[in-house]
Amino acid sequence: MHTWKRLILFPAKASSRFSLFAKINLLIVVLFIPILIMYTYSNSVTYDVVSNELQISNTKQLTFLSSQIDSRINQMMDFSLILSRDPNVRAFNGLNMWDDRYDQMQTRYVIQEKMTLQSGVTDIWPTRYAVYSQQNQDVIANYNRSSGYDEEYLKKNMSGQWTYGDQGTAPQDGLQSFYWFFTDSLAQPGTLTGSNLVIEASFSYENIQNMLDTYKAGGQGDPFFYHKGDAPILNRSADKQLSQELIRYLDTHASEDTTQDVVELGGKKYLVSSVKSTYLDWHLVDVIPLYQILQPISLSRNLFYACMILLLVVGISASILLYRNVQYPIKKLIKGLRRVEQGDYSVRLHSNKQNEFSFLFHRFNDMSHQIQDLIENVFHEKIRAREATLKQLQAQINPHFLYNCLGYIINMAQMKDEQAVVSMAHNLSAYYRYTTRMERETSSLQEEIKLLINYLDIQKLRNGRIEYHIDIPEDMLQQSVPRLMLQPMVENSVIHGVAKSYSSGEIRITGESEDGIGKIYIDDDGPGVSADQYEALNMKMKEPLQEEMGCGLWNTNQRIMHLFGTQSYLRFCPSPLGGFRTEIVWEIPKEDRDPERGNRN
What we know:
Keywords: Cell membrane, Kinase, Membrane, Phosphoprotein, Transferase, Transmembrane, Transmembrane helix. It holds the Pfam family HAMP. InterPro entries: Bact_2-comp_sensor_kinase (IPR050640), HAMP_dom (IPR003660), HATPase_C_sf (IPR036890), Sig_transdc_His_kin_internal (IPR010559). This is Two-component system sensor histidine kinase YesM. Its main location: membrane. There is one protein chain. By secondary structure, the protein is an alpha+beta fold. Helices cover about 55% and strands about 15% of the residues. It contains 17 helices and 17 strands. The protein has helices at about 1-15, 20-85, 85-95, 100-120, 150-155, 205-215, 240-250, 290-295, 295-340, 355-395, 400-415, 420-435, 445-460, 485-500, 530-540, 550-565, 595-600, and strands at about 130-135, 140, 165, 175-185, 195-205, 225, 235, 260-265, 270-275, 285-290, 440-445, 465-470, 480, 505-515, 515-525, 570-575, 580-585. The strands form four sheets. Strands 2-1-5-4-3 form a five-stranded antiparallel β-sheet. A five-stranded antiparallel β-sheet has the order 7-6-10-9-8, with helices on both faces. The chain has a five-stranded mixed β-sheet with strand order 12-14-15-17-16. It is rod-shaped and about 210 Å long.
């Protein structure tokens, strides 16, 4: 049993710690947290870097496009200045002194040819020019005009700046052309003196669209030309719904020369960049869908998170499987060991799976079964040994004084004392009838008292000085006690007390019970013994039986201890009668503590 306790102590310690299931899950979470933090930080840095680079790149590209438009506009303005100083143009604005109509036509042809050549330099930026002679009330243009010279038209548009539209009727789609009027007059700008030469330079909104289409083809944006209050100029493949939403946003936000904002529309983020044109007072706006450009990063991030969640699920699933297939069987085995430690050897473990733990469970069941069989065998052997010991002790007690009684009967028969013979034979018969009934280990205290009366009557026949008194409470008479528990004590008082003194002869037997403890006192008025002898005699009751010791008292003490427990005992001390006292103390069994038990029986 000590070996078993040492083996079971180890698993008991495991209950005070975290379970393996909780440890594994905690370890998984601890491993995942730094990975998630590092990846989130890395992804955030990557996202910011890419976003910043995208903004810088977009600003540079948009600035470059705006500079291209301004460069072409500047070329038109330079050409207008050069054209105004051309001799043929000045001749066209001079006095009508030509005598030859051919020269006039030749001059007009040369001027028109120069404007046409300048307009056809590039297909992406077609231009229109017109030369107005205020003095001659005439106009030369490289495009078809619906009307001729119009003085009021010139006065309305002589602002010195580029204007959108010629103040005429706007087209059906709201888009117009850009115009610039130049005169080399020394008068106040915007005024006509009556002899001015006016150069008109213009280009269609389609030029802007061409530039926007070329820009869009090389990037991922959706550019357009914007001026608050005018219809925007969109590229030809623009998302009109998105452009309208952005225009509403731009109308409510003041635009600076160069701006860049991240705008969220419809739950999606867009990078809106704008650059102001130097000559036109319009803004070149580009819209880049950040959610599409940064989608690979977001997709990679989401894929990583999905993988981490999947790994977490797999890890937890693995821990659950580990718990079900490893920790749970271990806990089951520990519970079984604890029950064995508590003395329950009937515990059996069962498993529906065929694995290593099923093998351990089978071995545990075999071990528990063998221990149970061993303990039951030891218990039965112990019971049989106790029964054999009791019967041996009883057999040792029974024939103790037979020979003296038979001798007394012989003597009385020889003396022709029939009454003494009958009385002795009657008591001796009752005495041995009781002592030879071996089928029961115990009897009632009342039966033991009857045996004492038979015994004391026998001794009184042999020794006339003997007188005895028995005082046992009625509630004790039905209690179960070992057979022949009192007889050896009374016999000891007769032989070693009364028989050794001619002046003594009283034997008193009394009893009491209190708090579940029964006590019987056997007193005599014999010579008694010294205090040291009392102490030595009490010590011998606790020691193994020795050859020089009498077996009667020792056997009785052992029987009491066997039946009632180690708290039951014999004790020897001086008697109030002046002789020897024997105290018999035992723990009354619970079933004998009911005071009405005797009445029911």
